[in-house]
Amino acid sequence: MKEQIKKQWKKRRASAAFIILILVTVTIMTGCGTQPGTAGKSEEVPEKEQLVLWSYYETDAQIQGLNDLVADFNDAQDRYEIEWEYVTMSDFDRRISRAYTEKALPDIVLIDNPDMLRFIQLGIFEDITDYAGDLGLEEDYYPASVSTVRKNGHYYGVPFNSNNVCLIYNKEISENAGLTVPETWDKFTDAAKLAARNGYEGFLMSCINSEQGAFQLLSWILSASERMDRKGITEAFSFLLDLVNAGALSAECLNYSQTDIARKFSQGKTAMMENGPWVYSMLDESGVPYGLAPLPARKGPPSFWEEKIWAFSVEKTWTEASPSSNTVWRKAAWKSSAAQHRCCRPESSLQK
Are 138 and 189 part of one and the same domain? Predict the structure, then answer.
């Protein structure tokens, strides 16, 4: 996997990015003035300072987007040169914690917001409050996004992108099995069981013990109770356990990442899965006919898009390698953001 990503890194391809945070690692700036005894000689171009970025991106579209973003930044200025390294998402938090202990942190990381508060409290992320005005944190971003990078009035990152999960279904299986897109839990259960009886995997989701599993489970919990209370949590877990017991949801969901279930769905044997726009390119390449719909609600028509967009989204943040280079980063980020919106096509918004 690592060798494949290194090869893809050299191709400069285009798409999306998520949340990047400065680490407390101090970088030493190299002076570029004329040295004594060099008067009259042609001035040499100073060597760029090397910066390292860690990312868990592994799909083609993710790699493509980050390659393009980093290349834009490197080409736009002559002070820094960024290279990014792949770290598996399942090991990402542990690698950061271990690197902090070993004083071997990268300069930048790409990380999800649920992990942010813990790392801020550990003192791993740089306080960039002095640059909040230049970065337009309070002016250019939604308040809910900014709240994910702020603690006690101080800022530690810059919101860049949000995404949402939805129900992705196989159109061919739905037609063959006589399924309709379910809008309630009861109809969803019936559809998943019917697909299973017809020899298909009824439903797939990621319940892995990590941020990915929490992200996917939260959708069902909030559908049961917007207040995240014990009753809603109990109802959501009971509902999913019933699917497992009925053979409509594999117990292996405890081991599946979101990429894992997308790969299985791409094989054309799964009726429905919960996933997001980061897997669209994988599905497109597989040729599997798929459609998008809101996740079913506990009762009544699905409405999470209007009411719970921030609750269901995973905010990501983007911050520059050095505050002095923020203008270049923001230009590069905006270009990458435009590519992301092209990738996340209009129907992914689920607005009818």
Answer: no
